[in-house]
Write a structure and sequence with these properties.
alpha+beta; 25-stranded mixed beta sheet; 6 helices; 25 strands; disordered C terminus
């Protein structure tokens, strides 16, 4: 009888067997998750989201890879209200979860990509939007009696690309479009971390045809909270946004374009400090006054920021340049200037409004008097703290105005067929340096202006806290400009031209009860073609006359001196 064959021995190590069982189970779970989880997520996701939002929610396809914890949603959309186009849609959402989510008991997403999100929003008027039903449904959800700890999470490498937003404002009128929306964030996390991580977020888009781009660099976990950011705005047309300016202003903006290249820096050492630098340009500005007439316009205003620290109330501008300004200033028949008159002429409150304001102020005083002493003391302490805040410090290294025009009309002089006084100065030039508030050092300035093609005024001077001095040369100044003001007192019409070299000195009052001091001197005065006439026959005329005093060039020879009232003009 042949001997029995030896039986094959199974591995005796139980851990090997368990490992094989675990591997088989893991493969089974992977297969189940790969095949069964996507349709389950699609079904339950559409059902739960539709119930929460009250709108139909569609999910095109779901892909899940359990061996890498990667989840992809394709063609997600939220239906619009009453058959309108989709309120929200996104082409693809990709999330790559990390295994440490299990150990930290919080979702940790290593990458989150959102491709081609699209949002449609409509303002129906009276503060109503086409998503009010969604907001009301979410607000009606039961809230916990006591707020708990916020959910822990960590999202890394967030990338949103190809986004678009369509906003239809039916109340104001314009439709706004945002295209090529791009948002990149290194991470958003509320999990504790002790690492010093440098992040570089980015936001870019094109709004109504104007490009915006920004980049930043920050140390969110460092004690200094150091952060640097750059913002670039190219050709932002303000025309679509003019409807949002509150009505009733004395000046109404009609057009302007903004370009900006700004750099921001933040640091906490130990007090928060914010610094702003770069350039800001406003071009093509046009505005009208409350009556719809031209008010202020200019070709371009360029501001070069030196270092602006708003939290410390310090503003340093390296240069301010204004090109082609045109100011239309009109004194109306009631004596008010057009740039200060609101539409409808409602500048001063009515007597009833004044009485109501006085009554409310009196009631407010009575209520404050009835407050406990501690409340009044705290209010007084807050007022003292506000009063102790440092004053703003403003410094401008260079200021320049090129090609300016001033049109001044005085309607108060129009009476009995006498036309209103009108003056136009063009080719206005101004240059000033070392401008500072408060005055730390004297500023110097110079400039010129013309009437038509003839240079009329040249001036230069200095100004400081202790006073100001100006020297001016006037050429070919028509005396007829004063005719509307002299008409009630002088029947013959005054004509002729004036040339002058004058100087002016102003000094603040030496004491509180004294007025400021003003000195005016004339080194040279020349009158040409002086004539008093009633058309068509002249009543009187004079040959050219000249008065000149010997003085060094640029010196201020005193010709008149008087105490000037603060209201004198």
């Amino acid at each position: 009888m042949p001997p029995p064959r030896p039986r094959r021995r199974l591995p005796a190590n139980r851990w090997v067997r368990r490992g094989l069982y675990a591997g088989a189970g893991l493969l089974g779970l992977w297969a189940l998750g790969w095949l069964g989880l996507p349709p389950l997520l699609k079904w339950q996701g559409e059902k739960i989201a539709s119930a929460q939002l009250g709108r139909a929610v569609r999910i095109g396809a779901v892909d899940f890879k359990p061996w890498t914890l990667e989840l992809t949603l394709n063609d997600v959309a939220v239906a619009g209200a009453d058959g309108a186009p989709d309120q929200f849609s996104v082409k693809r959402v990709y999330a790559d979860a990390e295994l440490q989510s299990i150990f930290r008991l919080a979702p940790v997403i290593d990458a989150l990509q959102i491709e081609a999100p699209a949002v449609r929003l409509t303002h129906l008027g009276d503060g109503r939007y086409d998503i009010d039903d969604i907001l009301a449904r979410l607000a009606a959800r039961p809230q916990p009696a006591e707020p708990g700890e916020p959910a822990r999470f960590a999202l890394y490498n967030i990338d949103l690309s190809g986004g678009r937003i369509d906003f239809d404002d039916r109340a104001v009128g314009p439709q706004h479009e945002v295209r090529d929306l791009r948002l990149a964030l290194p991470f958003i996390s509320n999990l504790p971390s002790q690492r010093q991580i440098k992040v570089q977020p980015q936001l870019a888009f094109v709004a109504n045809g104007s490009a915006f781009d920004s980049r930043a660099e920050a140390l969110p976990f460092d004690a200094s909270r150091h952060a640097d950011a750059a913002f670039r705005l190219s050709g932002l047309d303000l025309q679509p946004y003019l409807g949002y300016i509150p009505p009733g202003l004395p000046i109404k903006l009609q057009a302007a374009t903004v370009d900006a290249d700004l750099r921001l820096g933040f640091e906490q050492t130990p007090q928060p400090s914010l610094r702003v630098g770069g350039t800001l340009t406003v071009s093509g500005l046009k505005s009208v006054d409350g009556q719809g007439a031209d008010a202020l316009a200019f070709d371009a205003l360029k501001v070069q920021l030196g270092e602006v620290r708003p939290l410390e109330r310090k503003v340093h501008l390296a240069a301010v340049e204004l090109n082609g300004p045109h100011l239309a200033l009109r004194r109306q028949a009631d004596g008010q200037f057009n740039l200060l008159v609101t539409p409808g002429g409602a500048n001063a409150p009515e007597s009833g409004a004044v009485g109501a304001g006085a009554a409310s102020a009196e009631a407010r005083f009575d209520s404050e008097s009835s407050q406990p002493p501690a409340s009044r003391a705290s209010g007084a302490g807050a007022g003292a703290a506000a009063a102790a805040a440092p004053a703003w410090q403003v410094a401008i290294d260079k200021l320049a105005v090129h090609g300016g025009t001033l049109d001044f009309t005085d309607d108060t002089t129009a009476a009995d067929g006498v036309p209103a006084a009108a003056v136009r100065l063009n080719e206005f030039e101004l240059a000033a340096t070392t401008i500072g508030l408060p005055f730390a050092q004297p500023l110097t300035f110079s400039g010129s202006a013309a009437r038509g093609s003839v240079p009329s005024i040249e001036f230069q001077g200095t100004a400081a806290e202790r006073g100001a001095e100006v020297n001016a040369r006037i050429a070919h100044l028509p005396l007829g400009l004063a005719a509307p003001y002299l008409a009630p007192h002088l029947v013959p019409r005054l004509t002729g031209e004036l040339d002058a070299h004058v100087g002016l000195q102003w000094a603040p009052p030496q004491a509180r009860d004294l007025p400021p001091e003003l000195k005016i001197a004339a080194e040279q005065l020349t009158l040409r073609q002086l004539m008093l006439a009633e058309a068509p026959t002249p009543a009187a005329s004079a040959a050219p006359a000249q008065a000149k005093r010997s003085a060094p060039r640029g010196a201020l020879t005193e010709a008149a001196r008087w105490p000037a009232s603060p209201r004198s003009t």
